[in-house]
TrEMBL record:
GO biological process: L-methionine salvage from methylthioadenosine
PANTHER family in the cross-refs: METHYLTHIORIBOSE-1-PHOSPHATE ISOMERASE (PTHR43475)
Active site (UniProt): 240
Function: Catalyzes the interconversion of methylthioribose-1-phosphate (MTR-1-P) into methylthioribulose-1-phosphate (MTRu-1-P).
Source domain of life: Archaea
Species of provenance: Candidatus Nitrosopumilus koreensis AR1
Protein family (similarity comment): Belongs to the EIF-2B alpha/beta/delta subunits family. MtnA subfamily.
Catalytic activity: 5-(methylsulfanyl)-alpha-D-ribose 1-phosphate = 5-(methylsulfanyl)-D-ribulose 1-phosphate
Stored NCBIfam families: eIF-2B_rel, PRK05720.1, salvage_mtnA
Marked site (Transition state stabilizer) residue numbers: 160
InterPro entries: IF-2B-related, IF-M1Pi, IF_2B-like_C, Initiation_fac_2B_a/b/d, M1Pi_N, NagB/RpiA_transferase-like
Keyword Protein biosynthesis recorded: yes
Protein name, UniProt field: Putative methylthioribose-1-phosphate isomerase
Amino acids binding substrate: 51-53, 94, 199, 250-251
Length: 348
């Protein structure tokens, strides 16, 4: 494994197959899985083999690229109909992250704009590959934009995993932390473990340690302690969906971290590409994905709760705009009032 984060690609296209890091196996082993069927990609998204909004968006696009290869269609109409079917299956895997719909839609527009079956096949694959490459560039630009908000010797808290593993490579929130370090500033990171699936301890801590960062892990319950004791200067997280009012949907627990940060006067930043911003929906329209209770009642095969206990296991929560100091994107940093500043991002 090389220390260049862009060399560790979460999702890639090789020899007409989709290749992914199986994130369910981290940090114990680094395993790459290969898929040649879009149904396998849908399963991989559903079971968190691949996760993180930008990575899911590109995975959806690659799923459609597999679908064009799998299809036996001889006419454009038949091929589009096969793609629509694949799109439906891929779209239904995770309802909260908006990047999935964005990635699928982008591919469908390209497919419909071509005339022959051959042209559609070629263009869909090349567009999906282009989206993967662009993801890395977008993250690097976002990182540079955000790095000015962080100072030498800052200790930055992050929640969940918004790193290279949540994107094609480099990362959103962790991309900003990387860019801050690359600009010559010395920074430390505190990662929350992020129950119940431990993306903080399994993925963020793994990734940052691998890349030579000074990182400490805390239980989710120690966020208030860390802030009250002056261990944290700033917070940065990613997002699965941001609506036009600046309400941010991100991994469950983000709202608590943001509330604590406000209480202690600590700036709370969100880093996300424009593809994560949903200008159509209102906050109350967003579906929060509920996941199975077994994620909470045990860890692996080890039981940690009584049998037949009721479980409430939302995957995401909503952080209101008044708790957010800034939203970092590839087009610049949006500051309150968000309704105006977010709209501006799409104008330049």
């Amino acid at each position: 494994m090389s220390s260049d984060p862009s060399s560790l690609r979460t999702v890639d296209w090789k020899n007409n197959k989709v290749v992914m890091i199986d994130q369910t196996k981290l940090p114990n082993e680094l395993v790459f899985v290969e898929f040649d069927d879009y149904n396998q990609v849908a399963d991989a998204i559903r079971t968190l083999v691949v996760r993180g909004a930008p990575a899911i968006g590109v995975s959806g696009a690659f799923g459609l690229a597999l679908a064009v290869l799998q299809s036996n269609a001889t006419t454009k109409d038949e091929l589009i109909s096969d793609l629509e079917n694949a799109k439906k299956i891929l779209f239904e895997t995770r309802p909260t992250a908006v990047n999935l719909a964005w990635g699928l839609e982008k591919i469908m527009i390209v497919a419909k704009s071509r005339d022959s079956v051959e042209q559609i096949r070629e263009q869909v694959i090349s567009e999906a590959k282009k989206m993967a490459d662009e993801d890395i560039e977008i993250n690097k630009t976002m990182g540079k934009n955000g790095s000015i908000l962080f100072d030498d010797n800052d200790t930055i808290m992050t929640h969940c995993n918004a790193g290279a593993l949540a994107t094609v490579a480099y990362g959103t929130a962790l991309g900003v932390i990387r860019a801050t370090k690359e600009s010559g500033k010395n920074v430390k990171v505190i990662a929350t473990e992020t129950r119940p699936i431990q993306q903080g301890s399994r993925l963020t801590a793994f990734e940052l340690k691998h890349d030579g960062f000074d990182v400490s892990l805390i239980p989710d319950t120690a966020v208030g302690y860390s802030m009250a004791n002056g261990l944290v200067n700033k917070v940065i997280v990613g997002a699965d969906r941001i609506v036009k009012t600046g309400h941010v949907f991100n991994k469950i627990g983000t709202y608590q971290v943001a509330t604590m940060a406000k209480q202690h006067g600590i700036p709370f930043y969100v880093a996300a590409p424009l593809s994560t911003i949903d200008m159509e929906s209102n906050a109350e329209d967003v579906i929060i994905e509920m996941r199975k209770g077994s994620e909470v009642t045990g860890i692996g095969d080890k039981k940690t709760a009584p049998d037949k206990i009721n479980v409430i296991n939302p995957a995401f929560d909503m952080t209101p705009p008044e708790l957010i100091s800034g939203i970092i994107t590839e087009k610049g940093i949006a500051k309150p009032p968000y309704e105006e500043s977010i709209k501006k991002l799409f104008e330049n």
